[in-house]
């Protein structure tokens, strides 16, 4: 037993060993045997990247595959046209597996180790969500087939979740009640390592800050104008000074999306897009109040008016030691993979293009690492799900070590066999873990006990205002 396993995790895994035996090698072989169409689908989604709320083709492919496997499909969850739930079976336990499939703007890239956009300025799967949704679907179908073979009761559910990249799609699905009846939910994410997750990620809040002033000739009558851009710049100066006086693990980053029409016109409108992050949801709430004060100060000093629109917000991730240890165990059973010579050459070119002289030499075996315990500086709306139901989360190595997410480098890898090998590690570990939960209801109870312990005295509240609706595009 690994040294990081908690007492609660020890109890749960001991209970697992006494449950109905799961033939892990047989299940792994079955997942591999049915992988062909899913690998092809991951490439098809990669070739047709769609931004958040617009994942019509990607979600349709996943629904078609799951429907053909005998899953019941419920669409338009929470009023989101690309959100869906697919399930098979009935009764308890109800185990869910999360899938994502949205792409990122501006990261179009060929499956080549040098910058080569497929479509200039187009979107691309720089976070590997083409692999994410597909691996999770493969795991769900494999679990369904195992339940039939083992004659086990329960329900396996796939969550098709749109717009994780800044839209907080899962928050709207939570508000529609999509997750609350699940006993356990499992998730993964593409990355550069294979490991179970034991970190909180960062809660975040994303907003548009709009300043309204008064236009005038910038040379002939500047005194008649009130510069919206001045208000915005005073705000950003105050935000940058604020960095010194908030917890060091916080993050604040912004872009100016509108700064005026012409240099000889005092801008009557300016807009800022800002994201603020912290590992704790309550602390983030306090930091956000101070950021809003910076905006109000900018408006007051410049004689302008400011409006703030919250676009999205994510909660931090509530870790679950029972599910962490379960995923870790099954990752080790699954094992990593070995790079072919061609894959190793591709990976080395990707790493060289990063310009990081401190990367260690490439190890061509993708090993299983100890659970990730450091606080990650990124955010995910899986965190919101973890506040309402026990969630286990893991990473799989779809990119060479050192490759950053949200880059053309990761987009390139997500379209290759290297990415698909990592996808299969995730699919197999998820299938094993979900099957373990069905074989042993006591393990499900232990995961719930760990969840209840973590949530004692806490209550989930999204920072997205109640009643706010996402800006959905027209259906094509």
Automatic annotation (TrEMBL):
Listed PANTHER family: PEPTIDASE M20 (PTHR30575), XAA-ARG DIPEPTIDASE (PTHR30575:SF0)
Cellular component terms (Gene Ontology): cytoplasm
UniProt entry keywords in alphabetical sequence: Hydrolase, Signal
UniProt-listed NCBIfam families: amidohydrolases
Peptidase M20 dimerisation domain boundaries: 205-298
Gene Ontology molecular functions: dipeptidase activity; para-aminobenzoyl-glutamate hydrolase activity
UniProt keyword Signal, yes or no: yes
Keyword Hydrolase: yes
GO biological process: folic acid catabolic process
Source superkingdom: Bacteria
Signal peptide: 1-19
Stated name of the protein: Amidohydrolase
């Amino acid at each position: 037993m690994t040294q990081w396993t908690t007492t609660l995790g020890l109890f749960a895994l001991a209970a697992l060993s006494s449950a109905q035996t799961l033939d892990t090698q047989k299940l792994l072989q079955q997942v591999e045997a049915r992988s062909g169409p899913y690998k092809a689908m991951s490439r098809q989604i990669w070739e047709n990247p769609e931004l958040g709320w617009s994942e019509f083709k990607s979600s349709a492919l996943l629904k078609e595959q799951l429907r053909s496997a005998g899953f019941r499909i419920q669409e338009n969850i929470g009023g989101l046209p690309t959100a869906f739930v697919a399930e098979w079976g009935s009764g308890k336990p109800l185990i869910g597996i999360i899938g994502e499939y949205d792409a990122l703007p501006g990261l179009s890239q060929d499956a080549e180790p040098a910058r080569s956009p497929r479509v200039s300025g187009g979107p691309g799967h720089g976070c590997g969500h083409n692999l994410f949704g597909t691996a999770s679907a493969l795991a769900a179908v494999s679990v369904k087939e195992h339940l039939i073979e083992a004659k086990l009761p329960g329900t396996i559910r796939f969550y098709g979740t749109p717009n994780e990249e800044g839209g907080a799609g899962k928050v709207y699905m939570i508000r529609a009640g999509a997750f609350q009846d699940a006993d356990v939910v499992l998730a993964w994410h593409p990355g550069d390592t294979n490991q179970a997750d034991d970190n909180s990620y960062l809660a975040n809040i994303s907003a548009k800050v709009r300043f309204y002033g008064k236009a005038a000739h910038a040379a002939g009558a500047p005194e008649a104008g009130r510069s919206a851009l001045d208000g915005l710049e005073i705000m950003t100066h105050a935000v940058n000074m604020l960095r010194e006086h908030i917890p060091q693990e916080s993050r604040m980053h912004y872009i100016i999306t509108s700064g005026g029409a012409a240099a000889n016109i005092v801008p009557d409108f300016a807009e800022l897009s800002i994201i603020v992050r912290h590992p704790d949801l309550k602390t983030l709430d306090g930091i956000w109040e101070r950021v809003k004060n910076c905006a109000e100060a900018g408006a007051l000093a410049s004689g302008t008016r400011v409006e703030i629109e919250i676009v999205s917000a994510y909660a931090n991730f509530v870790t679950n030691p029972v599910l962490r240890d379960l995923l870790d165990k099954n990752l080790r059973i699954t094992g990593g993979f070995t790079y072919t010579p061609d894959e190793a050459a591709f990976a080395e070119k990707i790493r060289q293009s990063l310009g990081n002289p401190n990367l260690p030499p490439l190890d061509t075996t993708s090993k299983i690492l100890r659970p990730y315990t450091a606080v990650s500086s990124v955010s995910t709306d899986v965190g919101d799900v973890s506040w309402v139901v026990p969630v286990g989360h893991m990473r799989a190595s779809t990119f060479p070590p050192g490759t950053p997410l949200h880059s053309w480098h990761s987009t390139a890898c997500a379209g290759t066999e290297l990415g698909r090998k990592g996808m299969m590690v995730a699919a197999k570990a998820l299938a094993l873990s979900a099957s373990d939960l069905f074989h042993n209801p006591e393990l499900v109870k232990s995961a719930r006990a760990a969840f209840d312990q973590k949530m004692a005295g806490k209550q989930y509240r999204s920072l997205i205002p109640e009643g706010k609706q996402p800006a959905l595009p027209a259906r094509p």
